[in-house]
Design goal:
Blueprint lengths: L6 E10 L4 E11 L5 H10 L3 H16 L7 E6 L1 H4 L2 H7 L6 E5 L5 H14 L2 E7 L6 H7 L3 E4 L1 H7 L3 H16 L3 E4 L5 H10 L3 E2 L8 E2 L3 H12 L7
Parallel strand pairs: 2-3, 3-4, 4-5, 5-6, 6-7, 7-8
Antiparallel strand pairs: 1-2, 1-8, 1-9
Helix pairs in contact: 1-2, 2-4, 7-8
């Protein structure tokens, strides 16, 4: 998959909170050497091959996503620079379901408008990842008008116990609604946190309580366990 170490795509469910239903999956890379994807990307950045690595990971995810249940969208992670590569457009044309691209919060502001145009041109939808961290603030949300705003998990956890975190997350949520974007809270790890997501009025949620990243050949079993254990509807998926 990569020059020296292979990687596979895993998929984590995304749940519609009001309906308690799986509506999509995020594609996540898992390397066979056990080193985190962020570390592999950091090294690739230093060596001047980050875009090449990202394209390889996206290709693996696109190929694996073909075996997912037919309903439900898939989201893929890419930096702003990688989103501008013609090779990415060719890969995305192979996706036979609704798809979205997640823009890393670290993408520079100058990259973002081209990204919005690229996603629209290819017929996908745009997600801002880790909203509330780095550049991913209210200004970016208003400028890009993404389809989904993903709330940074650290900010969500902070909001559970502190007034400043609560104020910050409510500001992000309000800005997302202002541009008619759906909101997705990451890092939901137990039933109490899921209740907190409901209280916030967020549309979507993701986290270990709602399914761990799973290899595609084990997704059906994972969804069945999720339906039995948490009551999330995975019918049709």
């Amino acid at each position: 998959m990569t020059d020296a170490v292979s990687a596979r795509a895993h998929f984590q469910p995304i749940v519609d909170v009001p309906r308690m239903r799986v509506v999509g999956f995020e594609a996540l890379a898992r390397f066979d050497d056990g080193v985190s994807p962020l570390e592999h990307l950091r090294v690739a950045e230093e060596e001047g091959r980050r875009e090449q690595l990202e394209l390889q990971l996206i290709e693996a995810a696109v190929d694996a996503a073909a075996a997912l249940p037919a309903e439900g969208f898939v989201t893929l992670n890419a930096s702003g620079r990688t989103m501008s590569f013609p090779e990415l457009a060719e890969l995305l044309r192979r996706v036979e379901r609704s798809w979205g691209l997640e823009l890393f919060e670290g993408a520079e502001p100058r990259e973002c408008r081209a990204v919005r145009e690229q996603v629209d041109r290819l017929g996908g939808f745009l997600l801002i990842d880790d909203a509330g961290a780095g550049f991913a603030d209210e200004t970016r949300i208003r400028d890009l008008r993404p389809d989904i705003v993903k709330i940074d998990r650290a900010l969500f956890w902070e909001s559970l116990s502190g007034s400043e975190g609560r104020r910050r997350i409510e500001s992000i949520l309000a800005t997302a609604r202002e541009v008619e974007a759906r909101t997705l809270v990451e890092g939901v790890e137990d039933a109490e946190q899921l209740d907190a997501v409901r209280e916030l009025g967020a549309d979507l949620a993701q986290g270990y309580h709602l399914g761990r990243p799973t290899a595609v050949d084990a997704v059906a079993e994972m969804l069945a366990d999720l339906q039995r254990g948490v009551g999330v509807d995975a019918a049709g998926l």
